[in-house]
Amino acid sequence: MTESFPPAPLWRRLVAAAYDGLLLLALWMVTVLVDAVLRAIAGAPRNWGTLQVCVFVVWLGFFGWFWTHGGQTLGMRVWRLRVLREDGAPLSWLGAAVRYAVMLLVWGIVLTPLIALAPPLRAHPHAMLASSLCGVLTLLMLAWMLFDRQQRAPHDWLSSSRLLLMPKPATRKPRS
Q1: In this structure, is residue 118 part of a structural domain?
Q2: Angle 16-115-132 (CA atoms, 0-180°, nearest 5)?
Q3: Quick check: is 22 in a domain?
Q4: Which of 66, 74, 134, 144 is geometrically suited to a Cys-Cys bond with 112, CB 3.0 to 4.6 A?
Q5: Residue 143 sits in which domain range?
């Protein structure tokens, strides 16, 4: 089944990621709000480690649910992208968790050069080295995607999945 659809082009992946990024920002804000309210009710001090774990789990739930139930997040649906296993079946929760964890790592690598430009981090003695190393890794990942016949990113091949471009839905003819 996966052979009947072309691989998703990089630009569609990035635009769908931007859409989903807005949804993740909203989920992050709700998670922080719920954490703050629950801590205020319980009189517990703020714990950044616990909050980070909560955000990680909420985002895993977001991606896991959509990827295991139809293979499309909301951003992917808008841009007609679908993630499926190599055999054409939907992702399992384990496959979705692997894809999510590697995807976070990839985005961390890709965004590190930009984050290293922030004033508090720019002065760090290793900022330039980390930025350069992550820039080289980003270029290697992009080259891999361009030369891979199926245009897979690291999170695609490590989770044994593919991101496919789905056909346009048939348009309905207006009734007279």
Answers
A1: yes
A2: 100
A3: yes
A4: 134
A5: 2-165
- Kindly state the tokens that stand for 108: 């961390």
3-state helix, strand, coil in the chain (%, to 5): 65, 5, 30
Q: What is the pTM of this model?
A: 0.85
Number of C-beta neighbours around residue 134 at 10 A = 19
The tokens describing 7, both together, are 């691989």
Q: What are 63-104's pLDDT values in tens digits?
A: 999 999 999 999 999 999 999 999 999 999 999 999 999 999
- Helices 93-115 and 127-147, packing angle to 10 deg: 130
Which H helix or E strand runs over 173? none
DSSP 160: T
How far is residue 55's CA from residue 32's CA, in Å, rounded to a whole number?
8
The closest alpha carbon to 164, from 16, 2, 11, belongs to 2
Q: How confident is the model over 115-146, as pLDDT tens digits?
A: 888 888 888 888 888 889 998 999 999 999 98
Tokens representing 122 are: 């720019």
Amino acid 19 reads Y
* DSSP result, 27-43: HHHHHHHHHHHHHHHHT
Query: How many domains are there within the chain?
Result: 1
